[in-house]
Amino acid sequence: MLRRWLLIGALCATSVGFASVPGARARQQTTRAWLQSFPVKAGDLATIGENAYFILKPGYQITLEGLEDGKTVRLVVTVLADTKRIAGIDTRVVEERETRADALAEVSRNYFAIEKGTRNVYYFGEDVDVYTDGKVTNHESAWLHGMHATFGLMMPGTATVGLRYYQEMAPGVAMDRAEILSATRQVTTPAGTFANCLETEETTPLERGAREVKIYAPGIGLIRDGPLALTAHGRRAGVSTGPSPASR
User: Fold this and answer.
1) Which of 30, 121, 127, 224 would bridge with 245, disulfide CB 3.0–4.6 Å?
2) Distance in angstroms (rounded) separating the CA atoms of residues 46 and 121
3) pLDDT at position 41, please?
4) Could you give the CA distance from residue 200 to residue 161 in angstroms, rounded to a whole number?
């Protein structure tokens, strides 16, 4: 989803039909093209790890807050101890819990795996619960790899300015894609000032004109998501996550 934190090939136990991201030749060829295929061996994927801008370790949590449409929005992103097997691949569950004006607005369980060598983080789908007045009203934007959808690249292990890649490929549902704009930003948030930050712009062919700028700090992860800015980060022991979307 553009709001937070896209080739179709079979995923099997021995090979996940994805192209390597990105050798020197790939970097030259992706100045304007969007990467859509990511060959990697299934055995090279893990559910725990990190690269410079994405931490996939149970207990790690970030909190972002800000004003959106005149309402106070709080987004808490937690790497859970849970895993989920999707089309033969074990993935790590990352929960996003969003409140608006102190009311629960959305809970999503996002599924990621990291490639051991390149440290590329791949995105295998999400289960979503959207809330209205305390009740689940829909599951908009939910998708899973292998169910009329294909995994995408969430965060490359080597961030190259100009690289463009699909994060989701669920036709008609979720087709977010990102372009790396800068790797040298200095950004100040309520949680501190961070140097050498990665700036990306997310768009989608499903919604003309939709655009979201996100910024990631080395060793921290997401620190700006549109109007939201980082207020806290670190390991949270014994975090209670409350109600979560049911596996579908």
Assistant:
1) 127
2) 10
3) 87
4) 9
Total domains in the chain come to 1
Total Cβ atoms within 10 A of residue 132: 11
Beta strands 143-144 and 103-115: pairing type? unpaired
Question: Quick check: is 175 in a domain?
Answer: yes
Identify the CATH number of the domain in which residue 90 sits. 2.40.360
Retrieve residue 167's tokens.
Answer: 């994060």
84 domain residue, yes or no:
yes
Euclidean distance between CA atoms 114 and 53, whole angstroms: 12
pLDDT tens-digit series, residues 187-218: 999 999 999 999 999 999 999 999 999 999 99
- Residues 108, 128 contacting (CB under 8 angstroms): yes
Q: Which domain holds residue 198?
A: 16-235
Classify the C-alpha dihedral 118-124-126-127 as positive or negative.
Answer: negative
Q: Residue 236: what pLDDT?
A: 79
Give the whole-angstrom CA distance, residue 160 versus residue 30.
Answer: 10
Tell whether the model's pLDDT for residue 175 goes beyond 80: yes
DSSP string, 55-85: EE-TTEEEEEEEEETTEEEEEEEEEEEEEEE
What's the pTM?
0.85
Q: How far is CA 202 from CA 30, 154, 196, 237, in A?
A: 16, 11, 19, 32
DSSP class of residue 44 equals: G
